[in-house]
TrEMBL record:
<dbReference type="InterPro" id="IPR029068">
    <property type="entry name" value="Glyas_Bleomycin-R_OHBP_Dase"/>
</dbReference>
<feature type="domain" description="VOC">
    <location>
        <begin position="4"/>
        <end position="125"/>
    </location>
</feature>
<dbReference type="InterPro" id="IPR037523">
    <property type="entry name" value="VOC_core"/>
</dbReference>
<dbReference type="InterPro" id="IPR004360">
    <property type="entry name" value="Glyas_Fos-R_dOase_dom"/>
</dbReference>
<dbReference type="Pfam" id="PF00903">
    <property type="entry name" value="Glyoxalase"/>
</dbReference>
<protein>
    <recommendedName>
        <fullName>VOC domain-containing protein</fullName>
    </recommendedName>
</protein>
């Protein structure tokens, strides 16, 4: 069996500077530049996600990062105050309330995008 020394995930963006500002300043995550000019986004429970520039970037068609919170309403209010739009989907696709929170169908969750169009979420676990 292979022995792994670390495991991490990654996804692309079209503008590394915009991604750095969003993940650091809007989401409040710890972001560092690595030696290759990519971003390492530290995850609160440990580990990190690699964010790398890709000139022909196409946003992922799935949620690339889920941020677990204790209070979904407070989290959404704070994100919206920072300019994040959490009402992404029409109600016939994913029924959400006026804040963009889907409630009572699994964990309460709200989706939004980063500057590159990748889908992220905040949810109560």
């Amino acid at each position: 069996m292979v022995t792994y020394t670390d495991v991490f995930s990654g996804f692309s963006v079209d503008d590394i500077d915009a991604a750095r500002a969003f993940y650091r300043d809007v989401l409040g995550l710890t972001v560092t530049d690595n030696a290759m000019g990519f971003l390492d986004v530290a995850l609160p429970a440990g580990g990190s996600v690699l964010v790398y520039p890709k000139p022909d970037h196409t946003p992922a068609s799935f949620t690339v990062l889920n941020l677990v919170v204790d209070d979904i309403d407070t989290a959404v209010d704070e994100l919206q105050a920072r300019g994040v739009v959490t009402k992404l989907y029409p109600d016939d696709v994913l029924p959400t309330d006026a804040k963009g929170i889907m409630r009572g169908n699994g964990p309460d969750i709200a989706w939004f995008t980063d500057p590159a169009g990748n889908v992220l979420s905040v949810l109560v676990d």
